[in-house]
Amino acid sequence: MDDRALDTIVLQGASVRVQTSFPVREKVRGVSRVNAAPFCRHFGITIDTTLGFIDPKFTENGLELNLSRVVSVAKRRKRPK
Q1: DSSP alpha helices (H): ranges in 1-81?
Q2: pTM of the prediction?
Q3: Up-side HSE of residue 73: CA atoms within 13 Å toward CB?
Q4: Nearest to 13 by CA among 2, 22, 26
Q5: Which residue, among 21, 26, 58, has the nearest Cα to 36 in the 3D structure?
């Protein structure tokens, strides 16, 4: 579900057998990853870097992610010498 008026995406749990579900990667150093690129493309959400959500919230609806409260967490590429 997404709410354009609130700039919020809500992720809900689903079986891995559901074709429209997104896999959640296991925690690495305490961080979980969700590959939401297909979701963003489908709904016309343009994101040009890897984002970290500042205050994700677990609610009765699912995991709420506010697109207005993000930071870029992309690693900088090293310049060739």
Answers
A1: 37-42
A2: 0.61
A3: 10
A4: 22
A5: 21
State the average pLDDT for the chain.
Answer: 77
pLDDT at 43 over 70: yes
Q: Is pLDDT of 63 > 80?
A: yes
- Higher pLDDT: 74 or 22? It is 74
Q: Where are the beta strands (DSSP E) in the chain?
A: 2-3, 8-11, 24-28, 31-34, 51-53, 57-59, 62-66, 70-72
Among residues 4, 7, 14, the alpha carbon closest in space to that of 55 is found at 7
Amino acid at 10: V
Dist. CA 20–CA 18, nearest whole Å: 6
Rounded distance, CA 43 to CA 27, Å?
27
Q: How many residues does the chain have?
A: 81
Domain ranges for the chain: 2-72
